[in-house]
Amino acid sequence: MRALVYHGPGQKAWDEVPMPVITDDTDAIVRVDATTICGTDLHILKGDVPAVTDGRILGHEAVGTVESVGAGCKNTKVGDRVLVSCVTACGACEYCRQGSFGQCLGGGGWILGHKIDGTQAEYVRVPYADNSTYPIPAGVSDEQVLMLADILPTGYEVGVLNGQVKPGDVVAVVGAGPIGLSAIMGARLFSPSHVIAIDLADTRLEAAKQFGADITINNSREDALAIVQELTGGLGADVAIEAVGVPPTFELATQLARPGGHIANIGVHGTAVTLHLEDLWIRNVTITTGLVDTYSTPTLLRLAQGQQVDAQRFITHHFQLDEIDEAYDVFSRAADTGAVKVVLTR
Fold it and tell me: What residues contact 156, with CB distance under 8 A and at least 6 apart?
């Protein structure tokens, strides 16, 4: 089969690789029908995630068809159409029993495209398949459900829920890429008074309006801090969500939050960030970080099935799986191409 293989920072190739095989009785082999590219994949290619080593197949999001299962699989059946989650769960360790699947101690967590071969391939081995795949509800398309593999639960859990968004809140989202847009969409479920999107690219700010932002700020030519303070009577945002993963955006998020507010970091950081605790301690702010646990995936599947969440709205570009190099180019130049999420299909 063919797959996208990481060969060190800045290097990847669409290579011929061996087919995956079942190695544990709880494994499933899934034919990848649709996959996508994540901002985390771009961080990996920059060398920001050193745990990813030369030879690793990238990707941690997929919709596919189960081709074979190990003898220990009880619910996953050959022929099932499934969502492959970005987080794998053993289901038995202390963290999994708490619903903190991202911290799985039994060989799970974020492993696909990270510690084991991932989903940007024609086939993928999914460990703990009963706990790490989700049957796709009738009437929901592959493209809709693909967005629930990572970005929607990440924005919802790590941004909205960790940030404790409440009705009437002012929510400032720093970064209007796919994760920022998912945080905007998730925040809207809680009836905030204002959702503010902050970015450097007008194309992404236009997308933010479509996802529910009622105020957009281009921080390359506007003063985001001054605008947010003016809107809030000098207080700041109730919740500031960082959705980029670079030092300036995190520092801006800490400045935007009001005393007693929440700062929810979603971005994947590859370099050190200065935490100005000398300014923050007296303001009673709460700072949260997190890797998605995907405990919200069943809820989001129901919302997608009931059309309360329009997950397909994220998709701007379509490619065949063997056009993955072109897809990476388009996705990595999102400010120029207008790409939000790309979908690659067989």
Answer: 182, 183, 186, 296, 300
